[in-house]
Design brief:
The chain has helices at about 10-20, 25-35, 50-55, 70, 110-120, 140-155, 160-165, 190-200, 205-210, 215-225; strands spanning about 40-45, 60-65, 80-85, 95-105, 120-135, 175-180, 185-190, 235-245. The chain is α/β, with parallel strands linked by helices. The chain has a single domain, classed as Rossmann fold (3-Layer(aba) Sandwich). Strands 1, 2, 3, 4, 5, 6, 7 and 8 form an eight-stranded mixed sheet that branches. α1 packs across α8 (about 190-200) and α8 (about 190-200) runs antiparallel to α10.
């Protein structure tokens, strides 16, 4: 079994407050290819962002995450069941779900074990949709600072699983009958402080702090403040990469 990595419990509050919200077009796509709306499993739910949207269409959503602290920041809803569970050992019943979703988390899973679990809990013909967002693009000066920060300063502090994100999930194992998925973008209007909060939610930033006893975000603060004034709102675009498929078994 692959090593269990809980990389977001420590910064759960920051994660809940700072992570980008997925666009309406993502859910339009999910609902458009789903056939039955009885039960959805949102795996690696984090603070329940996707689960809340799925609950608007499904009779029941089961939202699991290995981090109890992450789930503690999820908003309760009567038709969502939040559970602390590993992706590879969900505790769900056999043949019980019509949809499996994984938002920006699949790269942390033990693929073989997870896909065996998906085959067990999914009804024949159920859908699976996974997605991840890539580093954002903004003004060229900001992009340059971010790229240096991400790949040079923090390069040694990323877990190996980061490669699946850098490869835009194109190479990640996905053993399903594929459904073509749209290329979408998360568009945000953020202040510098909101952006700094987002950086602090990164696992690599937390690894850096643990190993060095200092905050790497502060290293680039002055550079950013020179081009991003207090209270100023900048436009950011996060490319969203989606894989979708039919679970035939």
């Amino acid at each position: 079994m692959k090593e269990v990595k809980d990389l977001f419990s420590k910064q759960s509050a920051t994660y809940a407050a700072s992570r980008p919200k997925y666009p309406d077009e993502l859910y339009d796509f999910i609902f458009g290819i789903t056939q039955n709306f009885d039960t959805a499993w949102d795996c690696g739910t984090g603070n329940g962002q996707a689960a809340m949207r799925l609950a608007g269409r499904f009779a029941q959503v089961i939202a699991t995450d290995l981090s109890e602290k992450q789930i503690s920041y999820a908003v309760p809803k009567e038709n969502i069941i939040y559970k602390v569970a590993r992706a590879e050992d969900s505790g769900l019943d056999d043949n019980s779900v019509d949809l499996v979703t994984v938002g920006t988390a699949l790269h942390w899973f033990d693929f073989d074990k997870f896909y065996s679990e998906v085959a067990r809990v999914a009804r024949k013909g159920a859908r699976i949709i996974v997605w991840v967002y890539a580093p954002f693009r903004s003004e060229s000066a900001i992009d340059e600072i971010l790229d240096n920060f991400t790949y040079k300063l923090l390069g040694p502090y990323w877990d190996a699983e980061r490669k699946w994100v850098d490869e835009q999930y194109k190479t990640i194992p996905f053993p399903f009958e594929e459904i073509p998925a749209p290329a979408l973008t998360i568009r945000l209007s953020w202040t510098l402080e909101q952006f700094m909060g987002f950086l602090h939610s990164w696992s690599s930033v937390q690894h850096y702090i643990t190993q060095n006893g200092s905050d790497p975000v502060e290293i680039i603060r002055a550079q950013l403040e020179a081009i991003w004034k207090p209270g100023e709102v900048k436009q950011l675009a996060f490319p969203l990469f989606i894989r979708a498929g039919i679970i035939n078994k």
